[in-house]
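Ticket #4471: complex job returned nothing on first submit. Input attached below:
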Amino acid sequence: MIEVEVKNINKHFGNFKASDNVSFAIERGKLIGLLGPSGSGKTTILRMIAGLETPDSGEIFIGGRKVNDLPPGERGIGFLFQSYALFKHMTVFDNIAFGLTVQKKSDSEIKNRVEELAELIGLKDFTSRYPLQLSGGQRQRVAFARALAPNPELLLLDEPFAAIDAKVRQELRGWLKQTIHKLGITAIFVTHDQDEAVEVADEIIITNRGRVEQSGAPIEIYQSPKTPFVAKFIGESVQVPDYTIFKGFDEYEPREGILRPEFLEIGATIDEMPQPMPVTTERGIVRGTYFRGSVIQVDVEIKGQLLKGFRGLEQVPLHEGDEAFVFIHKIYGFDGDKTQVIENAAKRRESVII
Amino acid sequence: MFGKSDVIPGRRLTLGITLTYVSLFLFIPLAAFMLYASGMGFEKFFAAVTDWRNVHAYGVSFFCALTAGIINALFGLIIAWVLVRYDFRGKKIMDALIDLPFALPTAVAGIALTTLYAQNGLLGKIFYGIGIETAFSPIGITIALIFVGIPFVARSVQPVLKELDPQLEEAANLFGAGNWTIFSKIIFPELIEPLLTGFALAFARGIGEYGSVVFIAGNMPYETEIAPLMIMTKLEQFDYQSAAAIAIVMMILSLTILLGIHGWQARQLKRIGGVVGA
Amino acid sequence: MRESIWLKRTLIFLAASFLFVMLIMPLILVAKEALSKGVDFYFAALTDEFALKALWLTIEATILAVALNTIFGLASAWLLTKFDFRGKTFLGSLIDLPFAISPVVAGLFFIMLFGRMSPLYPLLQEYNLAIVFAVPGIILATVFVTFPFITRELVPVMESQGRSEEEAAATMGANGWTIFRRVTLPNIKWALGYGIVLCSARALGEFGAVSVVSGHIRGKTNTLPLHIEILYNEYNFTAAFAVASVLVLLAIIILILRNLIENAGKASLQVSNLKAGVAND
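Support reply: We reran it on our side without changes. The output follows.
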């Protein structure tokens, strides 16, 4: 069942086109990540769904109801602001209770609901504190509870982790994902951080220059990026002006493409390469190695082109100036505004043989 | 401007109140004045504006306000410096006292200063003793204008001085710069803007000031008459046209000062790559 | 930068003596002159019929001007900080305009609007409405000169608060009045109090503008500052200073209030910052 539907939305700020014919639909109960670089129009989309901005044209539906002309307070949404926008002069209790008092709920009902939510966010003993007396992570959870208090159908979160320390952020991501799924609420969050989107979201919508580039499950987007932008934006990559210089890819027209580190097999010796070693294996010179925590990044030069790959910590260490074997499994080749996955010729032939 | 859907309510209401209020208390009186002034004809206007007695009065207002502004700029800087940089007994009282001229009715200041600086007054005795006529002279007018202008410079320099990054001075110190170099090359340039703003406000206020000045001025034609007093005099003679003409000259003077400073600030900000705020 | 103790002492001495001569001595003088003919004369001057009437008119004009300017200040600050529209900067400067106009000229505006040369004059005559040289004129002039005070205090504070708290309240369905009362007002109460105090101070002491429109009718259109002028010009110096001493007292109360409000505002900010600094995950 569709919870949120956005149809042909356009929005300008002066000469700046924040939304360019944006359309998408979101299923009920899903946790969606709106991902894009800053200025890509993701926050504008979120704010338009909330009613904090008005689209120039297009329609927005929440729960099957057209909400274009409804004020934010009547859309059945909860909104979590990037800066949290907690009411500074109200206690945690009063902050969470605000939406309910506006709805003129009874005191006992308010008290029960606030206590329930304070329990949920693990701040049961903090309800008489003021926002400035809380840490960043605690504030975020209060803002979350405040947004949830009136039982919204849809929760909208604007960069929910941006203002939090890296360490706490990791914890909160997991907590937020679990809690949202536990409540069964539909939620959309905006982020510019692909790790965050991949880790938290059920589905990702990628925006760029006011347009939706691609949407789908994180793994699907990772494995088959549809546009050059998505291919470059998701995951680590090295861009090459012409990938047909590499063995195994030379039967194509000269084209731009990108290579992810995991597309490369780098071997110090022949033994480390897939057996039997494909004929399209390249030889390169190691230009630098970097310890990256769980792997070692190896920069290797092939035909004047610097590529990036990973090697395990247990493998024989490579040094600058060493010769190395490199096998490129695949490349994302660009074709106008499309991306196609191109396998190494050696692998294609093998699969034909099998 | 209208019919836009806002998230925060109240656009129409507050716009309505604001425009009504601005119209009632600002536009309509201003328009009435303009209407009247425009009906007077250029010749009449020119004659009133260039009447020597009036010209002399603008001159007195202008030069006394300018002198008072300069003196206040100097002392305002010292006061702000002392309040921000030093700790001493009575600092809090000094800080609170600076605003006295904003709180004390100008007429009270006027009669008090006149009595103090009159020939037989407490301070007047000293000045007259060394041959300086402090009351009923341009010096007296300047003293009154110093009084009303005290808070302007001190209050605009103080916050800027407080916010000044101490690392700037530390950096200069590391290069071996001496106190005078640090002050003149590092600190003072940052203070020019608030100093000028405060000066312009005090200057503009001085040109229009009436209450504190009338008592100490003595109001002698061609000597110590100030421009606002000339308006009062013309009104008492029912010479509304001349009053309006003098008022126009005064408005042009103070607006020129304020806009001049504003324009200068905008240029400075542009020069150093800042953004001109609203 | 480390200054020598002598430079420091010289600068403090300069600042202190300047303020002593320019500000403290006039205050002392007012007290001394006011009591120079004894306490009985002092109280007689204060309880004089015209002095009391002038005091009453001053209070009336001040309360009205402050009340009107508070409503206007809140409305205009809300408009200027919560919405975007063309001409916003212009409107902001327009509100500041009375600061650039001499009070005497401001008084003149109202003479031109309601006085004998005004096109409105016959109409006013017909309905027997006196505005200039009467109480309404005094109130109008006072409102004019104190016009920008509250807006000026509120706008920077509301600007720095941003709009997100109000937006958050709106997403939860709060109406305008609820948002103002429960979200905005607690955030701006100190700035509002500060603005009201400054506005009152100016309204109490306004001289030039009120002088132009009052017509100096004793017991009818005299405010306290104008009453002082009359007493002084009649060479009744002691009575003039006696009345002045009341205004000095009010000025000191205003300064104290001003400081209390400022400190309260600062303290509430500091306490919360301090606690925020202590709090940790």
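Chain B touches chain C through 88 residues (CB under 8 Å). Closing as resolved unless it happens again.
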